[in-house]
Amino acid sequence: MPTRSGRCTVLAMAALGLALSAPGRAAEAPPIPYTVIRDFDGQTTGDRAYDLSGMACRPAEADGTRLCVVVNDENRGAQFARLGATTLTPGATAYDLGTAPAPDIRGTPPAQSHCSGGPGKFNQLDGEAVAYAEPFFYVTGSHGCTRGKRKYKLSSMILTRLRPNADGTAAAETVSTYRLFDALMAAEPVRDFVLRDLEFDWNAPPPEGTPQPNGLNVEGLAVVGGRLYAGLRAPSRDGRAFLVSVPVEALFAQGNATLTADVTTIPLAAGPDAGIRDLTILPDGRMLVLTGASRNGLPVPYRLFLAELPTGTLTSVATIAPVRGENEAGKRIDGKAEAVVPLGPGPVLVLFDSLLNGAPHAYAVPLP
């Protein structure tokens, strides 16, 4: 049955005439903006958040609201939030990695990288995705070189599992691991792209015709059936994006041993230059995939698909109409769709990187 908040959202969409689109086509009416009650935390004290890049929520509680975890890719951790019928309220810090790696992080950090910018500081998670599977939230860094300066940061190579306390105001338990890196290195079709530059330095471009490095980075995360699925924005190869799947408990096993588990790579026929921008699990257990450009600047639309597991067969659902707003520099831009959260049987909430507080908007989508 739909939650109270889900029913309210459906009714609001119906009142505004938000038409369901045919599969693969954008909705005919504009998406519905949600109100963000106050600003999410920016990179430093007093900053406003323009880089929200992942969000996942628990099922609705008695009052119809949902506890969520939101990640900003410029921060060192993640933040709680409360999702209402048409509102999103930022809450307390869920966790913070600090400025140096904690000694109890499980697994072993990567021994080397091919990031051309060399090593960087342990100062940002470069958080890209959040997943929820009772009773835990999972938050991952990008596991890639930084996009601008092409540096290797150990802080972005960490996957964290957290269990909220009873009232969702703090983490009752937090465990972090390096072993998602081991899984990526065991994924045969993509392993050669791990810790490679994401794209060229356009200030010093190589000779014309040189292929882009297409370095790996994680931007989607889902946990279902005891397995964790990491969705890769890149590499995109021959019109295929990739899921890397691994048993979740093996990632968080005690000690510093490297990963010992079966790793599966699932190709998704998402289209030329398309990569995974987010993953989420619907209430009936199906996987919803948000795709977009595998690199910045490519003319690839944001689309939603249903993915059949374990085959990776995709069913096109909708194209996400862009949301326009001002970026941190005050320039009008189209936001980058980076997070999708199911609101009920059909509606989804989408957050946009580069716009203030993610500019959350609800879309009605025709889920078959």
Q: What descriptors fit this protein?
A:
5-stranded mixed beta sheet, 4-stranded antiparallel beta sheet, 6% helix, 3 helices, 368 residues, disordered N terminus
Give the biggest sheet: 5 strands, mixed
The N- and C-terminal alpha carbons lie at a distance of: 17 Å
Order of helices and strands: HEEEEEEEEEEHEEEHEEEEEEEEEE
Unreliable spans are 1-28
Rg to the nearest angstrom?
19 Å
**How large is the count of helical segments?**
3
In what order do the strands lie side by side in the largest sheet? 2-6-5-4-3
Report mean pLDDT, rounded to a whole number: 90
Question: How does this structure look, described?
Answer:
It is a single chain. The protein is mainly beta and 368 residues long. It is 6% helix and 38% strand. It has 3 helices and 23 strands. It has helices at 4-15, 179-185, 248-251, and strands at residues 32-33, 35-36, 52-57, 66-72, 77-83, 87-96, 127-133, 136-141, 159-164, 171-177, 217-224, 227-237, 240-247, 264-268, 274-281, 287-293, 303-307, 314-319, 324-326, 332-334, 336-342, 348-353, 361-363. The strands form 6 sheets. It has a 5-stranded mixed sheet, with no helix packed on it. Strands 1-23-22-21 form a 4-stranded antiparallel sheet, with no helix packed on it. The model is unreliable at 1-28 (pLDDT under 50).
